[in-house]
Automatic annotation (TrEMBL):
Residues 1-38 are annotated as: Disordered. GO terms for molecular function: 23S rRNA pseudouridine(2457) synthase activity. It is an enzyme of class 5 (isomerase). Its EC number is 5.4.99.-. The keyword Magnesium does not apply. Keywords: Isomerase. InterPro entries: PsdUridine_s_RsuA/RluB/E/F_cat, PsdUridine_synth_cat_dom_sf, PsdUridine_synth_RsuA/RluA, PsdUridine_synth_RsuA/RluB/E/F, PsdUridine_synth_RsuA/RluB_CS, RsuA_PseudoU_synthase, TruA/RsuA/RluB/E/F_N. This is Pseudouridine synthase. SUPFAM superfamilies: Pseudouridine synthase. It comes from the Bacteria. The keyword Transmembrane helix does not apply. Belongs to the pseudouridine synthase RsuA family.
Length: 219
């Protein structure tokens, strides 16, 4: 004889269901992006071999060596071996507008590459290429002359006499780590020098390397 099965109790399941149904929905936490003090927006022309941050335990050159302003932060990064425009601000909304992928803010770079890319090479970048972290968005690519406003880099670029170099104007609408360098390498033309000229409506203009300009009152 098998033992008589005991009837299942349904009260426990119903109680748990009721508790789940009555639990209040969690509201999304909104970050306060307003400046804590007076709004500051600073344009800085970052020289080569300067870290895009205000401190470094190894004693390397940082933004602090050039910009004596506290409580501002870089909107996006610019690699140590790259040059040009950085925007420093305490305005979280501006920082998000310039850096968040969904905003699709254009960033313009002048790029010296090794070799002589043809239109067939550049069309690959215009359409988007697949890097190790996924496909890139279509980019604006132009073959241009060396910019007349360009300053000498210290130390100079080491060019190989037997290989020509070319200049490209590249407009990106995203900002992955070392993206420009990876894109040009992907089509066979390594980047030798990279200068960011614009982020959205903000441009480098005639700002010399190592100098900064406060535009807080102008925008």
């Amino acid at each position: 004889m098998f033992p008589t099965a005991k009837p299942m109790r349904k009260t426990s399941q119903r109680i748990h269901q009721d508790k789940r149904a009555s639990a209040p929905a969690r509201k999304p936490v909104r970050r306060d992006t307003r400046p804590k003090g007076p709004r500051r927006v600073i344009l800085f022309n970052k020289p080569f071999d300067v870290l895009p941050q205000f401190s470094d335990e190894a004693g390397r050159r940082t933004l602090k060596d050039f910009v004596p302003v506290s409580d501002v932060y870089a909107a996006g990064r610019l690699d140590r071996d790259s040059e040009g425009l950085m925007i420093l601000t305490n305005d979280g909304a501006l920082q998000a507008a310039l850096t968040q992928p969904g905003k699709r803010t254009g960033k313009v770079y002048f790029v010296q590459v090794e070799g002589a890319p043809q239109e067939s090479d550049l069309s690959l970048l215009r359409s988007g290429v697949t890097l190790n972290d996924g496909p890139t968005l279509p980019a604006g690519i132009e073959l241009v002359d060396e910019p007349e406003w360009l300053w000498p880099r210290q130390p100079p670029i080491r060019e190989r006499k037997a290989i020509p170099t070319s200049w490209l104007k590249i407009t990106l609408f995203e900002g992955r780590n070392r993206q420009v360098r990876r894109m040009t390498a992907h089509i066979g033309f390594p980047t030798l020098r990279l200068i960011r000229f614009a982020m959205g409506e903000h441009q480098l203009g005639d700002l010399p390397p190592g100098e900064w300009r406060d535009i807080s009152a102008a925008i």
